[in-house]
Polycomb group protein RNA binding region domain-containing protein
Amino acid sequence: MGKTALKDQREGKKEKAGRMLPLTPPANNKDSFSWEEYLKETSATPAPPACFRQARVPPSNDFKTGMKLEARDPRNSTSVCIATVMGLTGVRLRLRLDGSDNSNDFWRLVDSSDIQPIGSCEKNGDMLQPPLGFRMNASSWPMFLLRTLNGAEMAPATAFKKEPPRPPQNLFRPGMKLEAVDKKNPYLICPATVGEVKGDEVFVMFDGWRGAFDYWCLYESRDMFPVGWCSLTTHSLQAPGNSVSLQKPPPPLPASPPCKPSRRSLQPPHRLTPPMPPLPVRKGVRGRRPKSETLALLRGLAEAKALNTAGDQDLIPDLIPDLETRLPKKRGPKPGSKRKSKMLQSPPPAAEQSGPSGRPPQPHLCGLDSVCVRE
């Protein structure tokens, strides 16, 4: 219990001082990354500065860790809350809404319209609201607000910069290079490529990473920056991932040595026997091949012989069955059927066989097509 309490106190001191590990973005391990060399390797062109809603000259960052200001709740843009500056990097601020936890921290530029000095909300006739997911009872919000602002350091009005105007139209084109914020890790800015443009939206693709980090955004988004923006604002820029594809020319094919013409190469090319056509499956026929199957096999064998040359008759596969024109044998009725009982009936007596004129009776024809029973 004692060790846990001491550990919580240490973590609380680090959080108040603003020295927690997530508050500052990790340093770029690949300091050797150069946009100039990267553009040459990828044969790409950077997006012009006129495409972005960013100041041509980056503003200065006059904020300090621990200052209080008013900010719009990113999860509820209709409410304005009290926020505290928890970290600085370049001209970006890491903000935390008072009454919320560190899992809802967000980043804003010093010239963003989402932040304003303390008292601006009251001047506009609005009221400060508790953040979404306020950890205390809503009725205790006025007292919590009073304790939060009592003795706190307010950010000066000179630290807030005017937001630049948005471009008149979408000037992005597929294939342009830029720097963009990784929305899954908002403290990171990485090299990216414009993958697709649809109306006022731009599809941002991060170089060297899988598509899970790519996203659509408006062309006036404040999360996109021109090439070289991080170096101007002393913000760390993450190098592209390992799976970046560079446009390299294909290697030349090895020259094959000249071959002497042979008698075999002068012979006409052998044409393979075409496959047999699919045959229908007949049910209930046992012991004999259907007539349609026999005709189809004969037709396929004739086509195979016609396609082969005169000297290549021996190349016809031996797997083709011996197809001779045979008439299917006619079989009698099945045992126990009525037709057999009629055929095998005993002949009538001699008196009944002779007709009225005494002539011998004509041969009796049965119901079969090709078999007759002569008595």
Q: What stands out?
A: The first strand starts at residue 68 and ends at 73. The CA atoms of residues 365 and 372 lie 6 Å apart.
